[in-house]
Amino acid sequence: MVAFDYDRARATAARLIVKFGQKGSLRRITNTGSDYDPVQANEDFACSLVDLDQSQLHVADTLIQRGDRMVYLSTQGLSIEPTLADRLLIGGVEHAIVDIQPLSPGGVAVFWQLQVRR
Fold first, then answer.
1. What's the CATH number where 24 sits?
2. 68 CB contacts (<8 Å, ≥6 apart)?
3. Residue 22 belongs to what domain range?
């Protein structure tokens, strides 16, 4: 039996996200300096994403709020993995990351599904 090629699936996902999605940035906020007087700096990482509305079926009786967005984030060209402390810039507007679900069968991250909120 031939093993499934997850790298090929990742390349296909990245190609489709670039084709049907848009460019954005994953913003990481870092603290430098002393603990009592830290200086915050933003570092932006270019990324490709697909921005989708949340289904109204998911909004009722869940942690998803009206206005939340579902985002498919490509792994291609992104040197970091998203964290809940990061921010996602979509069309220049900063969004907080509420939830991160990697699609990673076989241990290979094909793409990340994010729930973001303005």
1. 2.40.10.270
2. 54, 59, 98, 115, 116, 117
3. 6-117
- What number of residues does the chain have? 118
Residue 1 lies in a domain: no
Q: What is the pLDDT of residues 55-104, one digit of tens each?
A: 776 666 678 888 899 999 999 989 999 999 999 999 999 999 999 999 99
pLDDT at 63: 80
d(CA 1, CA 15): 27
- The 10s digit of each residue's pLDDT in 24-50 is 999 999 988 888 888 999 999 999 999
Integer Cα distance of 48 and 17 in angstroms? 7
